[in-house]
Write a structure and sequence with these properties.
- The protein is mainly alpha-helical.
- It has 2 domains: about 1-60, no CATH class; about 60-280, Orthogonal Bundle (Cytochrome p450).
- It contains 9 helices and 7 strands.
- Strands 1-7-6 form a 3-stranded antiparallel sheet.
- Helix 4 packs across helix 7 and helix 5 (about 105-115) crosses helix 7 (about 130-145).
- Bound molecules: protoporphyrin IX containing FE.
- Protoporphyrin IX containing FE (HEM) binds near residues 148 and 228.
- Protoporphyrin IX containing FE binds near residues 152, 154, 217, 221 and 227.
């Protein structure tokens, strides 16, 4: 297996997956688990992804002029669906937050995206850097609805004291990421979805500032951070660029069901169907 370019093939597939081919995300995600020590069967699986890629290179998603209802979405919550590991919670939460917030935020983000992208068909990664409002929305979503509200359980190596509480070694500990994100000592109106607070904010999201740690902190912090942000930002930017979003007829902002399911991740208990109008059709 030494001569097989396993890692570089996965890396090329990941590039395609983030930019134009989200449909291979699950397969690539599984194949990437074996980067450090791939076997023959893993390489065979990768070759199947390449074959699939070749066979579908001329296919693309088509949106017709009818009334489009979006009721399925994707991100990186592989833990939420025990049967087939379909991934849902991140975009659900984005939808919840955005639809509950004043419409001005949505309009502002759309104006920013449409202004920056011009006449192109899709928003790509290069455009994202100019989109401060979009980034603020994503960041505020991770504060208010962290995908892993209690992070990942960890075991302490030694006795330690935190805020006067003695924690013995070998204890299983959880970090309350959800609680930190809503701590009134650090956040004004902590329960409100206010992306404006993230514009020009110096609070770090990668583990330096503990009031915002959706990806954990320290040596065992989430290594998927950059991939997740690229996928979520590019995905949301394209949804806002091409579609206008409304609440379903008769539903008001306060009717949106924000109940979540219990578990490692925090997916919505009930779907949020949103009518979408393709503005470029
Ligand atoms: C919305 C998406 C995601 C969120 C919110 C998230 C969040 C987290 C959190 C909170 C941890 C625990 C960090 C800690 O204990 O300090 C973690 C660990 C981890 N994440 Fe993610 N993650 C996401 C997606 C991903 C993706 C896409 C990958 C892989 C490409 C990934 C790979 C990992 C790995 C391997 C660990 C364990 C790291 C270790 O124990 O050393 N994550 N993640």
């Amino acid at each position: 297996m030494k001569k097989i370019p396993y890692a570089s093939t996965i890396s090329s597939l990941m590039y395609a997956m983030v930019c134009t081919r989200p449909n291979i995300a699950h397969a690539v995600g599984i194949a990437s688990r074996y980067l450090s020590n791939p076997g023959k069967e893993h390489w065979n699986a990768v070759k199947w992804i390449l074959r699939y890629f070749k066979g579908t290179s001329r296919l693309c998603l088509c949106f017709d002029n009818g009334k489009t209802m979006l009721d399925g979405y994707t991100d990186a919550d592989m833990a939420g669906d025990l049967d087939n590991r379909k991934s849902t919670s991140g975009y659900d939460n984005l939808g919840n937050g955005l639809m509950k917030s004043p419409k001005a935020i949505l309009k502002k983000a759309q104006a920013e995206i449409r202004g920056a992208v011009g006449n192109k068909d899709i928003v790509n990664e290069d455009d994202i850097q100019k989109l401060s409002c979009l980034k603020a929305i994503v960041r505020e979503t991770f504060r208010l609805y962290p995908s892993a509200p209690l992070s990942v359980p960890r075991q302490t190596l030694a006795n330690c004291i935190i805020n006067g509480h003695e924690i013995q070694s070998n204890s299983i500990v959880y970090t309350n990421v959800w609680g930190n994100g809503r701590d009134p000592e650090y956040w004004e109106n902590p329960n409100e979805f206010l992306p404006e607070r993230c514009l020009n904010s110096s609070v770090d999201m990668k583990g330096k500032d503990f009031q915002l740690i959706p990806f954990g902190a320290g040596r065992r912090g989430c290594p998927g951070y950059s991939l997740v942000l690229a996928m979520v930002e590019v995905g949301l930017a394209n949804l806002l660029y091409s579609f206008d979003w409304e609440l379903p007829f008769g539903i008001k902002k306060d009717d949106i069901d924000t109940q979540v399911l219990l578990g490692l991740t925090m997916p919505n208990k009930n779907d949020l169907p949103l009518p979408a109008k393709n503005v470029y059709a």
